[in-house]
């Protein structure tokens, strides 16, 4: 199935009207090989969408479960398709504290065993490694 058809179907299945903006934002996630921030999305878009529109699209996609946040640090949010994650755990990520670039660490499989105190229930596990990417390390 071609990507455009898949995107159109995904939008409809999730109750969205198919607009050029929504289709293009979702298409970027299918093309990307790593999670994307709103800033990166703005730079990659060929359509003329303003920040508020992109924010609304990302927010609505997140609420619908079409994408999820791989990394959040204040207003810096990095999103990705949820396909690589299970119901109860996400694959780990590396985030650069210099530029915010976030990469998936898919070599790490399975879940980490963490003992919680009595009465606490774990629902979702996320692992994040913070550091510097090669270009920020040199600065
Ligand atoms: Zn960096
Ligand atoms: Zn990821």
Short description:
With about 140 residues, the protein is of the alpha+beta class. It has helices spanning about 5-15, 20-30, 40-45, 50-65, 135, and strands at about 35, 70-75, 75-80, 95, 100-105, 130.
Task: Characterise this structure.
The chain is an alpha+beta fold. It has one domain (3-137): Arc Repressor Mutant, subunit A (Orthogonal Bundle). Helices cover 35% and strands 17% of the residues. It has helices at residues 3-13, 20-31, 38-44, 51-64, 134-137, and strands spanning 36-37, 68-73, 76-80, 93-96, 102-104, 128-131. A three-stranded antiparallel sheet has the order 1-3-2. The chain has a three-stranded mixed sheet with strand order 5-4-6, with no helix packed on it. A hairpin with a 5-residue loop joins strand 4 and strand 5 (102-104). Helix 1 (3-13) crosses helix 2. It is globular. The structure holds zinc ion (2 copies). One zinc ion binds next to helix 5.
């Amino acid at each position: 199935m071609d990507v455009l058809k898949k995107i159109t179907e995904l939008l409809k299945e999730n109750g969205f009207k198919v607009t050029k903006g929504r289709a293009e934002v979702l298409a970027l996630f299918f093309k990307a090989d790593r999670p994307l921030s709103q800033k990166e999305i703005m730079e990659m878009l060929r359509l003329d969408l303003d920040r508020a529109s992109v924010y609304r699209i990302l927010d609505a996609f997140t609420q619908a479960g079409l994408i999820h946040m791989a990394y959040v640090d204040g207003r810096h949010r990095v999103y990705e398709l949820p396909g690589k994650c299970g119901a109860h755990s996400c694959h780990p990520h590396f985030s650069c504290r210099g530029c915010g670039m976030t990469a998936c660490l898919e070599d790490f499989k399975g879940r980490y065993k963490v003992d919680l105190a009595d009465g606490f229930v774990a629902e979702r596990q996320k692992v994040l490694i913070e550091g510097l990417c090669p270009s920020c390390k040199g600065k």
